[in-house]
Design goal:
Distance between the termini: 58 Å
Number of domains: 2
Radius of gyration: 22 Å
Shape: globular
Number of helices: 19
Strand order of the largest sheet: 2-1-3-4-5-6-7
Number of strands: 15
CATH topology of the largest domain: pyruvate-formate lyase- activating enzyme
Helix content: 25-40%
């Protein structure tokens, strides 16, 4: 049986110079492919593609799907990629020999009924997908109908959504097969703009998922992997790293956990194993750490293991907004961790969410001041988007605000900005002037000049800057 797994990442990114939006190796469907190969062996032929590598334009999607002659098409997508998920699903269903179309990823996990209705997919997998997808394919091989399965949804003819109950999570993450890295061109993905937002320090990189689930309950966040932390053992994590180094030549790993350091001991043991096995690698954390629970010793250990870049999840520096976010960050401890990471030689970044429901001018200005005065090198700001199924969406509706997201990728940063307690134009002006204030802070400019000096002309262009930029 021919299985085609498609990640709806930015179309044609592999065919142009590196530029946002970011693209990474399609980790979710790499895990699916490995699960299929492990469970079903030669009964399946699995092909993995992303829209970044498979097509140059949306118009090429139907031919790309048709050429593969798939029996099952699995689509992994996020909500902001909804138009592309629709295009892939419709192209598959238009084939003369119609394949089974299964949708997974953050998009159907946060809004399964909408995803099924708009894409026309036969099934949606909600949450962690390996177990459910293997059983779906197994049933197709057997020639029968897909049974009712936990975490799998479909639409009745009446339009009513039915599911087989809550998704099941793998209790032992070490029992999950390593991603099927042999099915993708790692070097192609390494050439594209990456989620760390800065040029690589090594030639080949991959994303690394060392845990699933997060015990925290931030109001804006997804729940794909559940709220129980399930960490892979340090040996299992470093075994995968070693395999990638020796077999594929990978030298840089971007850790994409929801929270890498939920277990301090596990984090420390992973770092020590990297050092003890003498892996010549670099580590970056574009996601995945909670800064206000880190110690000086842990940060120094991360540096010894090769960490050169780390991103902290600030979101807001207003205690009132942090409480609404259910985040309750200790801002003093977070500031200390940022400083210690900077002193350890790491490039530091932080996430900021502007426009949370009910945010006032005073709240926003408190965040601007905190970031301006911190040792954060690259602040990464976004505009609050109340994704379906989140507490943030409930907060927005409770305040009488529009909580339904309609994707407008040409203007996505500003398309959902009606959530703060101020007029749109005032909000837009405050964000723009605040970011200028942050980036023009003299000590930050001095640090950035040193950071830019680490890259050649190509690296500067990668970041969208002229090589002769003056600071």
């Amino acid at each position: 049986m021919r299985i085609l797994l498609v990640r709806t990442s930015p179309i044609g990114a592999a065919f142009r110079e590196p530029s946002p939006p970011a693209v990474t190796a399609p980790l979710g469907i790499l895990y699916l492919a490995a699960a299929l190969k492990e469970a079903l062996g030669d009964a399946v032929t699995v092909e993995i593609e992303s829209l970044s590598t498979a097509v140059r334009s949306p118009g090429e999607i139907p031919a790309f799907i048709a050429d593969r002659e798939p029996d099952v098409v699995g689509i992994s997508s996020s909500l902001v990629e909804e138009p592309d998920a629709i295009a892939v699903a419709r192209a598959a269903r238009a084939l003369a020999r119609e394949p089974l179309v299964v949708l997974g990823g953050p998009y159907p996990s946060c809004s399964p009924a909408r995803a099924l209705e708009r894409t026309g997919a036969h099934l949606a997998v909600i949450g962690e997908g390996e177990r459910a997808f293997v059983e779906i394919v197994r049933s197709r091989i057997g020639g029968g109908d897909v049974p009712s399965l936990p975490g799998v949804a479909s639409l009745e003819e009446s339009g009513e959504m039915v599911t087989g109950g809550p998704a099941e999570y793998a209790p032992d993450p070490d029992a999950i097969a390593f991603p099927a890295w042999d099915l993708i061109p790692i070097e192609t993905y390494s050439r594209m703009y990456n989620f760390n937002d800065i040029p690589l320090v090594r030639d080949l990189h991959v994303p690394l998922l060392t845990s699933r689930g997060c015990p925290y309950k931030c109001s804006f966040c997804h729940n794909i992997f559940g709220k129980k932390f399930r960490g892979r053992s340090p040996e299992n994590v470093v075994d995968e790293m070693e395999l990638l180094v020796e077999r594929f030549g990978v030298r840089e790993f971007h850790v994409v956990d929801d929270i890498f350091n939920a277990s301090a001991r596990r984090m420390e043991d992973i770092c020590r194993l990297v050092v003890d096995r003498k892996l010549d690698v670099s580590l970056a954390f574009p996601n995945g750490v909670r800064g206000d629970i880190m110690t000086k010793e842990q940060i120094e250990l991360l540096a010894r293991a090769g960490c050169y870049s780390i991103t902290f999840a600030l979101e807001s520096a207003s205690p009132r907004i942090l409480k609404r976010m259910n985040k309750r960050t200790n801002l003093e401890k977070l500031s200390r961790s940022v400083r210690l990471a900077s002193e350890a030689g790491m490039i530091t970044s932080c996430f900021i969410i502007f426009g949370y429901p009910g945010e006032t001018r005073e709240d926003l200005e408190a965040t601007i001041r905190w970031v301006r005065d911190s040792r954060v090198d690259f602040p990464r700001h976004s505009i609050a988007s109340p994704f379906p199924g989140t507490d943030m969406a409930d907060h927005a509706r409770g305040a009488g605000l529009e909580a339904e997201i309609e994707v407008d990728r040409s203007n996505y940063d500003w398309s959902n900005m009606g959530l703060a307690s101020m007029p749109h134009e005032e909000f837009r002006s405050l964000v723009r002037s605040g970011m200028r204030e942050i980036m023009q802070e003299p000590r930050r400019l001095a640090r950035l000049k040193d950071i830019w000096s680490r890259w050649d002309e190509g690296g500067m262009k990668y970041m969208g800057h002229s090589p002769d930029r003056r600071f």
